[in-house]
Design goal:
Arc Repressor Mutant, subunit A, 5-stranded antiparallel β-sheet, alpha+beta, 14 helices, Beta-Lactamase
């Protein structure tokens, strides 16, 4: 996909009107196509520049997050509120740093940034009008090059849209009636809710499931809250009308989106039940978001992407013309072009093609991320 098409996709995603917490997990990977980084994060702040929430593709474990809040968050030199205030007061909303050897010798780097492999950081201040509302950050590792002037310019050009898409909104517990699975991870836990074996992405999903707002301020409670949540899930294997069962499926809605959990008992080597539970967690995104990502992965022009999304909603040519302010003949022409470029013959095929393209985009992006990690290693 060209950079122009990817920028158009970012603008589309930010204009969907979704809650920021629902949008962020899908938006940050799309941004990293334009601004190469191993991970990214978004932070939300209040009027005092105190962090009120965050979403990070790489999260510090709860214990280490608690240490960060206790030892570094309010530090005059490295603390978040002061550092964010300085960036918000600056003439340029975009800035970047490369950690020097002296920086890397400090406790803040050893206890926080090194755990995230954050040797180069690109910052962008998000605003609602003139009021700072948050920050978006991109991270590169020790073996990566620093962020260039081109990276900064790219972020500057996107900040207006990112500020719109990531602005805080009243949380909704049910983001969409129709959703699409975008990631799924397996972890193994004990029945008391303690993790035995799990990848970092599984742990990230669990924290989003169990905690409405992830912040350093409440990190000291996270481990208990997450463990109690997982323990409750495990109790479902025993507390059913028919007695003990081997598997329980459940759906959970949160400000972060919709999740599906499949909990199942793990047999021991002799086929007997034991106290370990497998937990397969899937994160779902609103179908409107998946469809928009699908148009971004297509060869459609910006106008054709708008038409394709309306076709996926079941709109007629006349309705499309009305919504986009076009003449009926012009709308019909764009519809024909969408059919040709997506290689479909019927309107009801468009939605499935866009969802397939969105899924293929996720697979391709993960392959690119894996390759980047391999090169870094």
């Amino acid at each position: 996909m060209t950079r122009k098409r990817q920028r158009a996709l970012i603008r589309t995603l930010c204009g969907l009107g979704l809650p920021a917490q629902t949008l962020a997990p899908s938006l940050l990977p799309a941004l990293r196509v334009l601004i190469a980084a191993h991970s990214a994060a978004v932070f939300w702040v209040d009027d005092r520049f105190e962090m009120t929430g965050l979403y990070a593709e790489r999260l510090l474990p709860p214990a280490e997050m608690a240490v960060y809040y206790k030892r570094h968050y309010q530090d005059a030199a490295t603390g978040f509120p002061n550092a964010f205030r300085a960036r918000a007061d600056g003439a340029d909303p975009v800035s970047a740093i490369t950690l020097s050897e002296a920086d890397q010798a400090g406790d803040y780097f050893r206890e926080v940034l090194s755990r995230l492999d954050a040797h180069q950081i690109l910052y962008g201040v998000l605003r609602d009008g003139s009021r700072p509302i948050g920050q978006i950050s991109f991270y590169r590792g020790a073996s990566d090059t620093g962020f260039s002037s081109r990276d900064k310019e790219m972020l500057r050009g996107l900040l207006r849209y990112l500020s719109l898409g990531l602005r805080p909104q009243p949380a909704t517990a049910r983001p969409s009636a129709q959703t699409e699975a975008v990631e799924e991870w397996l972890g193994i836990i004990a029945k008391d809710g303690s993790a035995i074996s799990a990848p970092s992405d599984w742990l990230r999903l669990v924290r989003l499931l169990a905690i409405e707002k992830v912040t350093p301020r409440t990190a000291h409670d996270e481990l208990r809250v997450v463990q109690e949540f997982l323990q409750h899930i495990c109790e479902g294997l025993d507390a059913t009308d028919v007695g003990a069962v081997d598997q329980v499926d459940s759906e959970h809605d949160s400000p972060w989106g919709r999740f599906r959990i499949r909990a199942f008992r793990l047999p021991d080597t002799e086929g007997q039940r034991q106290e370990q539970v497998g937990l397969l967690i899937g994160r779902y995104e609103p179908r409107t978001l998946a469809l928009a990502r699908g148009t971004g992965a297509s060869r459609l022009s910006p106008r054709q992407r708008e038409v394709a999304l309306l076709l996926a909603e079941g709109k007629s040519n006349k309705e499309i013309a009305g919504e986009l302010g076009l003449q009926l003949n012009t709308a019909s022409y764009h519809v024909k072009q969408v059919f040709t470029r997506l290689q479909v013959h019927h309107r009801d095929q468009i939605e499935q093609v866009l969802l397939r393209l969105a899924h293929e985009g996720i697979v391709e992006r993960r392959s690119d991320d894996d390759a980047r990690v391999t090169r870094s290693d």
